[in-house]
UniProtKB/TrEMBL annotation:
It comes from Secundilactobacillus silagei JCM 19001. Mg(2+) binds at D460, D466, E469, E470. Its cofactor is Mg(2+). The gene is pheT. Belongs to the phenylalanyl-tRNA synthetase beta subunit family. Type 1 subfamily. InterPro entries: aa-tRNA-synth_II/BPL/LPL, B3/B4_tRNA-bd, DNA-bd_dom_put_sf, Fdx_antiC-bd, Fdx_antiC-bd_sf, NA-bd_OB-fold, Phe-tRNA-ligase_IIc_bsu, Phe-tRNA-ligase_IIc_bsu_bact. GO terms for cellular component: phenylalanine-tRNA ligase complex. Residues 39-154 form the TRNA-binding domain. Signal peptide: none annotated. This is Phenylalanine--tRNA ligase beta subunit. It is found in: Cytoplasm. It catalyses: tRNA(Phe) + L-phenylalanine + ATP = L-phenylalanyl-tRNA(Phe) + AMP + diphosphate + H(+).
Length: 804
């Protein structure tokens, strides 16, 4: 929320600079995003008066204007605005000036006619288009008649003011108003804000004769309304427009602007209905009915939910309560009678309605955080009186009440010793009492016990801890002494599970993968992809966005989103891994899902980028990723044989390039290529992925002593080429070689695969290098030959191999 420094000065005697004030607010109350001056960076923009104008000789829409900018001679400026008119005072950017966007204005020619500057619209000097009044949206802006020619325009537009942008936390909804910030600054600087309270000038006619209200107290604990007749709709005075656009609100007209002004000033959302557009004389606050629709003021049609609160007349909804009014009851130029709604709605219902309808407004923001329940009538009175003064309306007598209750202050007890104990201070009774009084709280003292009466303006305070926080921030966090903790200390250490998880990240990073961190929340469709087990989904009751509705049950979908993000930005070579939790539920009836640690990887393009090699032929394939997974599992020192078994059970994976991963017969994950149709849906290139159950890997027995000294004795190699059926896998061959290879078989390496036309049909040739080594002595050829012959015989007998 942006608050003008000059607006705060109306209520407080502020003797510090705007930037110092912003820093004080940040240190004592809430975060301040920025302190800015709208005119900063702009120069040589002055008040000018158009003395005369004539059509451009070579254009049907340009006008050649003679403008008085305070110099001895008139300045000739070419202007194409449709509303340019002689005799009006305008914004003039002189040659050499800087306007919005740091654009420099130069003396130039427009279709052959000299133009000494520029006549500006509001958005051209830095105003956001969202706050420019509609009457000036398509043309230049006319300054007031009392503007002095040749002077800078900034004071006439409020651009010389400073704007303090406060980022209000959910617990400090009271600071979503100028009065709330003024009260807080009054406490900080030990001042009593000079807040003005309205005195309403009413006519004899009773408002209760005009309208009746029916409000469900569960939906609207407080609902009140004032009626103002005979209003004249017109633009608001400039002072009001300046206050609004400096706060980021577009001025509309003198009735709507009043409701927005009261919102900013008091923090109480109001809504103004055109009473003549309301059917009947009864206004209701109720739940929406099945099948009802409402077109809101932003001209969007909403299908109402039966849990949405609406304001309705006898026939239809006329507003989405606490969020936005309906187009069917909006204030327009023909409005003469206004019904002013001032209410308190149940915060949770407003929040859910705003989320369901994807409609978050200034009003819903305040109702969600709470409003001053004791100030509902005062806000309605202030709005009615302003409409009387600015729109010439007649305020009908009395406030019509649909629901209400006696708002009582909260009473909290606390002792001085408790405050000093928590804060580590040595404050006196009088110091703490003075702080409570500065905050506007009522306080009585019985010994060292304070009985504090908290007004309705601070609805965030309920318990003693809240009072301790108030004392700390008003006293000054920087004044609280700093102390180091004392007592015995212990040396921190990671658990075995933490060590293994950290080692997992180190291993995959050493293998060329980069860590990614994805959202644990995803869509329902993506949550159910790449499933390693059956599970019910876990849905959020009130998701913030449609893309984050369900807890993930796999890691791969998040990685594919990351791959897609990179591919969309022309990064084709992506190698990522992620370690995190997935969430499983055995049935829909389970309240909370179980959490499981998984680790997954995704590689697209080249793992090792070599500009000298053809990227297409050097791209990642199944075997390269399989090697990464094998190396990862070996580095974790898990006991047991690793087995890859071809599968087609994953709908999102390529059926011919996917394998389940088993360790000693236990399923731990899968590996393979993402199905081309799924890759197309994600808008990614060919990608290979794996996902492992890290919890299962952690529980498996480990071989903690992996060290093996390098043998000083030479090794001996033997090569063997086999002609086998195409159905025989490399894993089957390796199993037989290791089974009969003998004690000195060190390693087996597949170095060639041949499947050509010179081979018999259905056959393939596999060539292996077997390495033998005795760590304690030099091997002889006879020892190696005996072991090698056993391997060959086994391959022939068990696999039907033909030794080539």
């Amino acid at each position: 929320m942006k608050i003008a420094y000059s607006w705060l000065q109306e209520y407080l005697d502020i003797q510090v600079s705007p930037k110092d004030l912003g820093e004080k607010i940040e240190r004592s109350s809430v975060e301040v995003d920025s302190v800015t001056q709208p005119s900063d960076g702009l120069k040589k923009i002055v008040v000018g008066k158009i003395m005369s104008m004539e059509p451009h000789p070579d254009s049907d829409h340009l006008q050649v204007c003679q403008v008085d900018v305070g110099d001895d001679d008139l300045s000739q400026i070419v202007c194409g605005a449709p509303n340019v008119a002689a005799g009006r005072k305008v914004i003039v950017a002189l040659p050499g000036s800087r306007i919005g966007g740091n654009v420099k204005i130069k003396r130039s020619k427009m279709r052959g006619v000299v133009s000494n500057g520029m006549i500006c619209a509001l958005d051209e000097i830095g105003f956001s288009k969202d706050v420019v009044p509609k009457e000036w949206a398509d043309g230049i802006y006319f300054l007031p008649e009392d503007a002095k020619i040749g002077e800078p325009v900034f004071p006439y537009l409020g651009m010389d003011d400073y704007l303090i942008d406060v980022d209000v936390t959910p617990n400090r909804g009271d600071m979503l108003s100028v009065y709330g910030v003024a009260r807080d600054l009054g406490a900080i600087y030990a001042q009593t804000p000079k807040l003005n309270h309205p005195k309403v000038e009413e006519v004899a006619t009773a408002a209760a004769d005009k309208v009746t209200i029916e409000a469900d107290e569960k939906l609207a604990p407080i609902y009140k309304m004032r009626i103002v007749e005979n209003v004249k709709i017109q633009p608001s005075p400039l002072w009001l427009q300046i206050k609004l656009w400096n706060a980021g609100v577009r001025p509309i007209n003198n009735v709507v602007d009043v409701t927005n002004y009261i919102l900013l000033k008091y923090g109480q959302p109001l809504h103004a209905f055109d009473y003549d557009k309301v059917s009947g004389s009864t206004i209701k606050a109720r739940y929406a009915q099945k099948g009802e629709k409402l077109t809101t003021l932003d001209e969007a049609e909403h299908d109402l939910d039966e849990k949405d609160i609406v304001i309705a007349d006898d026939q239809k909804p006329i507003a989405l309560a606490g969020v936005m009014g309906g187009l069917n009851s909006e204030i327009d130029d023909q409005t003469t009678t206004v019904a002013i709604e001032s209410a308190v709605f149940t915060p949770t219902l407003i929040r859910k309605t705003a989320q369901r309808q994807n409609l978050h407004t200034d009003a819903s923001q305040r109702f969600e955080r709470g409003v001053n329940r004791g100030g509902v009538e005062e806000a309605a009175d202030a709005a009615a009186q302003m409409m009387h003064e600015l729109a010439g309306g007649d305020v009908l007598k009395g406030i019509v009440t649909g629901s209400s209750y006696d708002v009582k202050p909260v009473v909290v007890n606390i002792t001085l010793s408790r405050i000093n104990h928590i804060l580590g201070t040595d404050l006196s009774l009088d110091q703490v009492k003075a702080i409570f009084k500065q905050l506007g709280f009522g306080v009585t003292l019985d010994g060292e016990k304070y009985t504090v009466t908290v007004p309705s303006t601070r609805w965030d305070i309920h318990i003693p801890a809240d009072l301790v926080e108030e004392v700390a921030r008003i006293y000054g966090y920087d004044k609280i002494p700093s102390t180091l903790p004392s007592g015995p200390t212990t040396v921190g250490a990671l658990t075995e599970k933490q060590k293994l998880m950290r080692d997992s990240r180190h291993v995959l990073e050493s293998l060329g993968l980069n860590q990614a961190i994805s959202y644990a929340l995803t869509t329902d469709t993506k949550a159910k992809q790449f499933m390693m087990r059956e599970s019910a989904e876990t849905h959020l009751s009130w998701p913030m966005t449609a893309d984050h509705t369900t807890l993930r049950m796999n890691m791969i979908s998040g990685l594919l989103d990351d791959v897609a993000y990179n591919n969309a930005r022309r990064v084709k070579d992506v190698a990522l891994y992620e370690q995190g939790r997935v969430f499983y539920k055995d049935s829909e009836d389970e309240v909370r899902p179980s959490e499981h640690e998984h680790i997954a990887g995704a590689v697209s393009g080249q793992l090792v980028v070599d500009p000298l090699k053809n990227a297409k032929h050097n791209a990642i394939d199944f075997y390269q990723l399989k090697g990464i997974v094998e190396k990862y599992l070996n580095n974790l020192a898990i006991k047991g044989d690793i087995e890859f078994v071809a599968t087609d059970q994953y709908p999102e994976m390529h059926p011919g390039r996917t394998a389940d991963i088993f360790i000693h017969g236990h399923y731990v994950g899968f590996i393979g290529q993402v199905h081309p149709s799924v890759a197309e849906a994600y808008k990614i290139n060919q990608t290979y992925v794996f996902e492992l159950d890290l919890d299962a890997l952690i529980e498996m027995p480990k071989d903690m002593n992996q060290f093996e000294p390098i043998s000083k004795y030479p090794s001996i190699t033997r090569d063997v080429a086999l002609l086998v059926d195409k159905s025989v896998t490399n894993a089957q061959v390796l199993a037989q070689i290791h089974k009969r290879g003998g004690a000195y078989l060190k390693s087996v390496h597949l170095f060639d695969i041949f499947d050509g036309k010179n081979l018999p049909g259905g056959k393939q040739s596999l060539a292996y290098t077997l390495t033998y080594q005795n760590p304690n002595a030099t091997l002889t050829d006879d020892e190696v030959n005996q072991a090698f012959e056993k391997v060959q015989k086994t391959l022939v007998s068990e696999l039907g191999a033909e030794i080539r």
